[in-house]
Sequence to fold (111 residues):
Amino acid sequence: MKKAFTQTLMELRGGAVVEEATNELNTLVAMVRDTGKAGKITITVEVKPFAKVQDALEVTGKVVATLPKEKESAEVFFPTVENNLSRHSERQTELPGISLADTPSPRVSLG
Fold:
């Protein structure tokens, strides 16, 4: 009778391969939901002769997750004559009495 692949996978590195794959799958699902983009998990099992013992095999397991990249947000800046970046355009004049929402405006007493 053949031994189930999942049983062998559970024995690799004392179950660490399955635990790692489980954690990566959880992260992958969250990232796919957040980004709307695809990702994947690859589990590689390598089997080769064990050089030190006749009739023995060396078996390794590796988990690789390819996670979707989060969209990077862009910011808008304007170049100055000195080639610096500024949030404000030097070509646009300021309107009196109007300020940016995050900039506290000075209080004016009307009487």
The chain has a mean pLDDT of 87.
